[in-house]
């Protein structure tokens, strides 16, 4: 078990490396990943990204839900506040994965429906048990919502296989304004 002393020691080594210096608040590039909180699926590690390269939004299942849209709106304000340094454009990647714990929450439909802010009866349309279908669905929702707010932004959908360690592109990169 990792204890507080371990965390302090690990942090001291991190701080001594200096890799944290000079990083931009929203990352060095234009990449934003919406992913799952599962400890096996850290987007930086899975996608080979360095500290400061990505803005990550994580929730149970890596799903596009009302909380994600609220976060995106807040991040847009942060980007406006820092527009002198911020890179232009945004590429949002929706990355879900195999063997996800969100499938276990399907046994608690009220909880899951609350997370999506939908009636329980509408849960079948959320493809909770199928990560490929869920990513395609979420990418479609994201593109539809962003087409007026960020029509030049890019959206991609990936599924990470926790057994092989590989990602599959299940929704190729497209502009938010494209069908």
Structure description:
- This protein is of the alpha/beta class.
- It contains 6 helices and 5 strands.
- A 5-stranded mixed β-sheet has the order 2-1-3-4-5.
- β1, α2 (43-46) and β2 form a beta-alpha-beta unit.
- The longest helix has 19 residues, at 131-149.
- It starts with a helix and ends with a strand.
- The model has no long low-confidence stretch (mean pLDDT 92).
What structural class is derived from the secondary structure elements? alpha/beta
Cα distance, first to last residue? Answer: 48 Å
Q: Radius of gyration in whole Å, from Cα? A: 17 Å
Structural shape: globular
Q: How many β-strand runs?
A: 5
Sheet of most strands: 5 strands, mixed
Mean residue pLDDT: 92
What percent of residues are in strands?
A: 15-25%
Segments where pLDDT lies below 50 for 5+ residues?
none
Strand order, sheet with most strands: 2-1-3-4-5
User: What is the string of helix and strand elements?
Assistant: HEHEHEHHHEE
Helix amount: 25-40%
Our count of helices gives: 6
